[in-house]
TrEMBL record:
Organism placement in taxonomy: Bacteria, Pseudomonadati, Bacteroidota, Bacteroidia, Bacteroidales
Domain Putative beta-lactamase-inhibitor-like PepSY-like, first and last residues per copy: 63-150
Protein's organism: Candidatus Caccoplasma merdipullorum
Protein name: PepSY-like domain-containing protein
Keyword Transmembrane helix: no
Claim: Phosphoprotein is one of the keywords in the record: no
Keywords assigned by UniProt, alphabetized: Signal
Superkingdom of origin: Bacteria
Amino acid sequence: MKRLHDFKYAIVAAIAFMTAITATAAVSGDKKGMETALPAKAKTFITEYLAGEKVVKSKKDGDKYKIECSSGTKVEFDKNGMWHEIKNGKHGISSSAIKVLPNAAVLYLQNNYNEVAVKKIEKEPEGYMVELDTAPDKCEILFAKEGNVKKIMHDN
């Protein structure tokens, strides 16, 4: 009877081990495949502005690439790997990712909204649109390409 119990335990342990290895290989294979599918500029962006974050999802959507990090940060790139949008509605965008903005914009945010999380940064033809976590009201700041404030919008 003890031998049967030990045998059943060994079978269950072997199945669990094989399942874990298969799942790990599948995730690793997907991630590796996803990373190689990203354009070089997107990979450079991830290394430079998302250092220390782990990319958990990546996909090609038409002519765009989208990634998601374990922190909840999501980035959208164009077909050449240039970023278009960064967002993290849960925790706010990391300070290293905010540095995609021109220096003047980064300094403005540090001096005027230091305790407020940046939820979204979007590249616009005239500059950068930054959405702040100022709940319950919405606050967006439009920065010129050089980083100067062009417009501040509050929704009450």
